[in-house]
Amino acid sequence: MCDINACASFADSSEVSSVTDMPDICVAICTCDRPAGLESLLDGLARQQGGLRFQVVVVDNGTLSAQGVALERAAAGALSLTYVRLQERGLAAARNRSLALARESGAPWIACLDDDEVPSETWLSALHARACETGADLVYGPVLPDFEVSPPRWAVAGGFFVKTGEVACSSNLLLRTAVLGEDPRAWYQPAFGAIGGEDREFLARLERGGARAATAADALVREHVPAARLRLGYMFQRGLRDGYAEATLLRQVSDGPVRLGLSALGVAAKKSGFLLYHLVSSLASSAHFASALADLGTICGIAMCLSGLRRRFYGASGDPAGDDGAAAAECAPLSDRARP
Predict the structure, then answer these.
(1) In 155-296, where do the E strands start and end?
(2) Which end of the chain has fewer CB atoms at under 10 Å, N or C?
(3) How many whole angstroms separate alpha carbon 233 and alpha carbon 328?
(4) What is the pLDDT of residues 294-307, one digit of tens each?
(5) Consecutive H or E run containing 259
(6) Total of domains in the chain
(7) pTM as predicted
(8) Nearest C-alpha neighbor of 142 from the set 159, 155, 156
(9) 214 and 247 assigned to the same domain
(10) Do residues 233 and 241 touch, judged by C-beta distance below 8 A?
(11) DSSP 3-state of 276
(12) DSSP label at residue 80
C-alpha cells in the first residue's frame, strides 16, 4: 500500500501525494466538478498494461473537491498519485499547474487526457512506443465517443465526436518534457482560459518551435458524451466557441487592427463558403445541417469577439458550462510538416 502524505494547505492550493521512484511518464489530469468521470479515468489508468512506470498528478479547480476520489485510489495502492486543489480559475491555470507538477516528477514524458475520458489498457504503452519509434516530441491518439444515450443519425454520420489523432489535441497527448520552456507563464495562455482553444495555440507554438508530431493510432481513449451535446443547438454553440478562440488567436498573431480585420474577414469568408455548401447539402443529409450550424456559429463568434462582446464558454470554475456540452473540446490542425 502506498503511503499518503497530506501537505499543508496554502492560499492557492493543497496537495495530497503518494510518489515513488522517478517514472517513465507522468500523467497530467485537470478536473473540474466531475468526480464520477475522474473516478472512471483513474480506474482506467490503474488497469494500464505494458510495464511502464508512471505517476499521476491531478489538478482540481472545481467548486467541489475531488480529493476523496484521489485519496481512495492512492490508498488502495492502485496508483502513485499527487492531488492538488487549485483556487485559481480557468483552463490555462489548471493546465499549467499540471504540467509544472509533472515536470517536477522528473519524468521525461508527460501524458495528458481529460476528466471525461477513459483510456484503453494499452494507452500509455502505445503512445510511448510510437514516440520511441518516430523520435517525435508530441504524440496524439484517437478519441472515440461513449454516448450517454443513443445518438441521433447526424451525430454519427458527421463524425462530430470522433478525433482520429490526426489533429493536435490535449485530450490524448504524449509530450516530451524537454520541449517545455522554463517559464510556465509561456505555456498555456490565460487569454483562452474562459473560451477554450488554449491547447490549439500552445501546441501550434511548440510545433513552430521545432517540435515533431506523430500519431499513435492504437493509443485509444473514450470520451463520455452527455445527452445535451446531441442537440443541434450544441453545434451552434460549439461553432460560436471556436469563433471566439479563432478571433483571440488572430489578435495574438496579427500586427495591428487592419491586419487583424483582414485576417478575420478571410476566415469568415472561408467559413461562409462552407456554410453555403453545407446548407445546400443538408437537403440530403442532416449531418450537413449540423455542420452548417457550426459554421454559422464560428462566423458569429468571430464577429462578436472582435466587436468586444465578452462570452464565457467555461464556467467560473473552468468547467465547460454546466457540463452540458455548451463548449466543445478544442482541436487544432497540425502544421503542414509531414508526420512520421
Answers:
(1) 167-168, 172-176, 213-215, 221-225
(2) N
(3) 12
(4) 999 999 999 999 98
(5) helix 257-281
(6) 2
(7) 0.84
(8) 159
(9) no
(10) no
(11) helix
(12) -
